[in-house]
User: Which sequence fits this backbone?
């Protein structure tokens, strides 16, 4: 039965010409663009159910392509973009009928486009290999971008001329002082454009070459605008560099789709068959109980122009959380367990029996890590500390929480070898108490799914504070949940969630004017378990086991006595948030660094050019590079060898003699000819870059600095 709170707007079509209309859908939108209702057009009519509360309101009736079943409707802007018919009207409940006399020919030919792709996160793993992990619990917004000729049509005249100049510069075409004759053709083009320019244009078709030729000669803004519109396909190639054009582009989002557990998404969209769709994607991910935008590139660089329908689009989302759920075996006889898994992406090695060394890329027993860093071409970094905010990851048995195990707690303290952990009431420890939530998905029988969050702590139970609840097997029901909920499910497993988030700058802030004490050093971090009353649960065969990972990644082992103290799993983490320091004074001759009035450092036969620089870290947890460039060429004999030099090193090698550390500075004397070579007079740039090694387990923190100077050497002229 029709609801008393709704009415139907009857839309009758009378086609005034002959022809076959495409499959149509009638959409009704508010003036603000909100979809109010839709219905397919069948036998030249459609009945769209609308709320009675709209009585007397102005609406837009849009006739557009028919959507596939279960596909969301396009937006009003998207329908208008693809040439749909728009009829503004006033909705009246007493006269709920609209007659439209329209020709079939107003409708373009609409094509359906299958859009599909997958979301991945490509990362350089701590062992140097490249991993590609799927992104799940995400939704992809599929949008269409303005057709470039439409943008060109609305550009102000000054930007039209700027675009003309910039495009010709990209194509290495020099504008002619005199406009060419119309339509010069490829032969005329060959006569008037130099060979390098011909090679640049050879990749384009004859029509595009002719438009470039015309663009190089026309001066009237209207003609420039016309030729630029003809060169839309070429402009797309360079649009990423034309930042001033980006604000003039508009994107209309056609639909939003969720990804599956493998990061795959798909949708069917309609478009005008005369032009391939230009698609733009942005992505949100549900993490820690909320939606976060994890991918939203610029229109100029992120648009997929002339999308080939059906081709797979792979989007790399370095800022997203990957849904990796590695499988591993547990020791026989173990049912309840907690497995300290990783600090972010770096596996925890612990102290196995016999104390074998940790593999590279794993958190070492001494709290340091050797890891591979692809950025800045540094490669392997050794003896790196941790810093910033550390996200600890652990896994636990499916049967936790149980009746006897409900909470866990991470705590830290500065390491003191003579002070063992005495248990949950040891006052020397500080709980890691950053609030955490777990995301879950609810499905309904009468509406689309929603995403919710469940807080797991911190809470105080009994005498214990800073406790976090182990996630229940299924999300618990809330009193406010509607009766139509059919499924509640967590969006992530334990390995995709943060078990504890520790801001290490609280106990170990960097050295600064306000903090003159070096707080870097070794910290202990412990994990404890508690029952529902807040009593500590001690590990054992009848309660639970702490496990640790083996190097093969597929098996685990029981934690050793060296890893457990006071009923807790205890690990060492070396924390250092200190910044690096750099100084690069001007070179000097005879102790004089000042250049003359002409900006040159003058030299005579027998002089030595003294070069020095400072590259330090309070605890030598940094590396550096020093390069000297003469003209536009690197001077290898005066530059440090790749990939870097440790700040603790007593010398910095080059292809010839090294820079030796004297006091805090690296120093070396050069004869002038070693620097100027055959040039006699020469200009130089010296660049010092220092890279902090500290990591948060996912990436290097970037506690870096650099110095850049220029200097020039010239032979002293005789007076």
Assistant:
């Amino acid at each position: 039965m029709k609801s008393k709170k709704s009415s139907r707007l009857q839309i009758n079509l009378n086609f005034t010409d002959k022809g076959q209309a495409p499959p149509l859908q009638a959409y009704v939108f508010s003036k603000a663009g909100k979809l109010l209702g839709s219905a397919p057009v069948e036998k030249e009519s459609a009945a769209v159910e609308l709320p009675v509360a709209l009585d007397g309101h102005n609406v837009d009736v849009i006739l557009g392509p028919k959507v596939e079943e279960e596909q969301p409707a396009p937006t009003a802007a998207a329908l208008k973009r693809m040439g749909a018919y728009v009829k503004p009207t006033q909705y009246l409940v007493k006269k709920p009928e609209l007659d439209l006399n329209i020709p079939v020919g107003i409708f373009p030919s609409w094509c359906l486009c299958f859009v599909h792709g997958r979301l991945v996160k490509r990362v350089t793993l701590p062992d140097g290999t490249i991993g590609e992990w799927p992104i799940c619990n995400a939704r992809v917004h599929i949008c269409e971008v303005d057709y470039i000729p439409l943008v060109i049509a609305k550009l102000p005249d000054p930007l039209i001329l700027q675009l003309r100049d910039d495009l010709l510069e990209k194509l290495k075409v020099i504008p002619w002082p005199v406009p060419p004759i119309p339509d010069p053709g490829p032969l005329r083009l060959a006569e008037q454009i130099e060979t390098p320019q011909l090679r640049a244009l050879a990749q384009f078709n004859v029509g595009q070459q002719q438009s470039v030729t015309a663009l190089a000669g026309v001066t009237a803004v209207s003609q420039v605008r016309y030729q630029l519109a003809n060169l839309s396909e070429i402009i797309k190639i360079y649009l990423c560099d034309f930042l001033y054009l980006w604000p003039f582009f508009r994107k209309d989002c056609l639909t939003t789709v969720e990804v599956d557990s493998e990061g795959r998404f798909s949708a069917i969209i309609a478009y005008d068959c005369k032009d391939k769709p230009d698609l733009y994607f942005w992505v949100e991910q549900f993490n820690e109980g909320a939606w976060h935008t994890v991918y939203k590139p610029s229109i100029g660089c992120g648009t997929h122009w002339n999308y080939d329908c059906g081709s797979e689009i792979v989007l790399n989302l370095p800022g997203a959380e990957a849904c990796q759920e590695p499988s591993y075996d547990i020791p026989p006889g173990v049912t309840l367990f907690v497995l300290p898994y990783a600090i972010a992406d770096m596996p925890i090695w612990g102290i196995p029996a016999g104390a074998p060394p940790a593999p590279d890329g794993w958190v070492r027993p001494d709290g340091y890590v050797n890891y591979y860093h692809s950025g800045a071409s540094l490669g392997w970094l050794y003896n790196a500390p941790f810093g910033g905010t550390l996200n600890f990851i652990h896994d636990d048995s499916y049967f936790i929480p149980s009746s006897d195990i409900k909470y866990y707690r991470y705590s830290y303290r500065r390491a003191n070898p003579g002070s063992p952990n005495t248990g949950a009431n040891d006052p020397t420890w500080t709980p890691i108490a950053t609030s955490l939530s777990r995301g879950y998905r609810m499905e309904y029988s009468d509406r689309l799914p929603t995403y919710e969050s469940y807080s797991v702590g911190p809470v105080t139970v009994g005498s214990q504070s800073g406790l976090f609840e182990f996630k229940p097997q299924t999300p618990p029901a809330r009193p406010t949940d509607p009766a139509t909920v059919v499924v509640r499910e967590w969006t992530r497993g334990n390995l995709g969630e943060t078990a504890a988030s520790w801001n290490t700058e609280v106990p170990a802030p960097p050295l600064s004017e306000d903090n003159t004490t070096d707080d870097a050093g070794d910290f202990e971090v412990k994990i404890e378990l508690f029952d529902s009353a807040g009593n500590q649960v001690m590990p054992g065969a009848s309660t639970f086991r702490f496990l640790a990972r083996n190097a093969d990644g597929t098996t685990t082992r029981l934690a050793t006595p060296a890893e457990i103290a006071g009923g807790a799993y205890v690990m060492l983490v070396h924390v250092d948030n200190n910044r690096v320091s750099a100084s690069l004074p001007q070179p000097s001759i005879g102790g004089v660094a000042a250049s003359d009035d002409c900006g040159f450092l003058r030299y005579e036969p027998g002089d030595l050019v003294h070069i020095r620089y400072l590259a330090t870290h309070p605890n030598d947890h940094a590396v550096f590079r020093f390069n000297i460039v003469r003209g536009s060429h690197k001077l290898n004999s005066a530059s440090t060898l790749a990939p870097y030099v440790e700040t603790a090193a007593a010398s910095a090698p080059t292809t010839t003699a090294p820079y030796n550390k004297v006091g805090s500075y690296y120093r070396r004397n050069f004869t002038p000819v070693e620097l100027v070579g055959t040039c006699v007079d020469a200009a130089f740039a010296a660049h010092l870059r220092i890279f902090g090694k500290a990591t948060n387990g996912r990436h290097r923190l970037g506690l870096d600095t650099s110095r850049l100077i220029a200097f020039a050497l010239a032979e002293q002229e005789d007076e």
User: Anything to note?
Assistant: Confidence is low (pLDDT under 50) at residues 176-196. DSSP finds ten helices and 46 strands in the chain.
